[in-house]
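Q: What does the assembled structure look like for these inputs?
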Amino acid sequence: MDDDSKGGEQPRRRVRADAQRSIDTLLAAAAEVFAASGVDAPVREITAKAGVGAGTLYRHFPQRSDLIAAVFRHEVDACAEAAPALSAQYEPVEALTRWLHRFAQFVAAKRGLKAALHSGDPAYSSLPTYFRKRFVPVLSELLDAATTSGDIRSDVVPYDLLRAMGDIVAPDDHGYTQRMITLLVDGLRYGTRRTQPA
Amino acid sequence: MDDDSKGGEQPRRRVRADAQRSIDTLLAAAAEVFAASGVDAPVREITAKAGVGAGTLYRHFPQRSDLIAAVFRHEVDACAEAAPALSAQYEPVEALTRWLHRFAQFVAAKRGLKAALHSGDPAYSSLPTYFRKRFVPVLSELLDAATTSGDIRSDVVPYDLLRAMGDIVAPDDHGYTQRMITLLVDGLRYGTRRTQPA
DNA sequence: CAACAATACGGAGCATTGTTCCGGTTGGCA
DNA sequence: TGCCAACCGGAACAATGCTCCGTATTGTTG
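A:
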């Protein structure tokens, strides 16, 4: 849209080193606090944990929603980027399973953000799309690999699996989540030529 | 569970007339404010509209969530109780259609509460159950009547229809909502012996 | 009908939290 | 090295949830 923004994602002026430090620290602190106390946690709690002043926070994230959205994107990215490494290191189904566990961890951490995302606030309207755009390809890749190798069936819609995960994850009961993931993956295996449980 | 609660729903002591007035006024005011500004609307806005003091509100609804839950239940009840009258007055499909419109109105009003309901706050955990327990029988009755008279098909799960409604309703676009309800009902009609659109 | 005890009422006041503002400091560049 | 824009911390302000208590209303009893 802007005719001078052809180049890239970097803002016009380079961010100063100390500013970047503050941003990183804040993002990390906010992620922790949000996960622990939800998005309504006091701002002071975040600034305290980050060891910065309130002014610093508001300089970089003028609206509270800016911080929330940034944390969300940051965690989505981190989770999505974990996939390739798993694919490279493990065989398809194992990689898929491990990534699902990683994703469960993401969902659990995102619990505090959940309320905000569904609030209808236009500031967050782009996040579900981001979530989908980012995760569907990743999961598709993992599923495809496992399908190609003949380990799982091929009629599963990636987004359905993501939603199912969202419903399954119980932040307070790690064991339950683990068991359900196992169950899901076993379900995926059903009907392949290698149907062979213990 | 409690051995002394066999009797009924009335609290042990009768509420005074002025107290009941305050409660009703507050409920009405809160419903309006929540619908307009969401559940995070300032408490003062509600007390102002109701013409009562803050103390009065907190006397009857010690926690903010108590007020929210009360409003929710109140509106659920109102909507559910509208069904019998419609059934008595109109033929099955017409009654069903009219009630769906009524339900759409409820969902639109509940928009402000939506965020709270999905927040995971234990104070609201019982509300979805209440929603379901109250609405599923009502809708089942309406559907059964229309099925018996042969106007609609019989393979529709009431709760699915409720969910679909929740997704369809666009508080800002009344026309759209209306059209979608029509479409849904037409869909229900499909495959009956009276398949006969205009 | 009158007086009284229980209950409810209003709204000022306190505590908490979001947000702004500004004097001092730091980082990057000439 | 020296300069200036950018950044930092945190005090101060504003908005809001919630409590407290003196006053008013209700329902009952004699």
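The helical segments of chain A are 17-37, 43-50, 54-60, 64-89, 92-117, 126-148, 158-168, 174-189.
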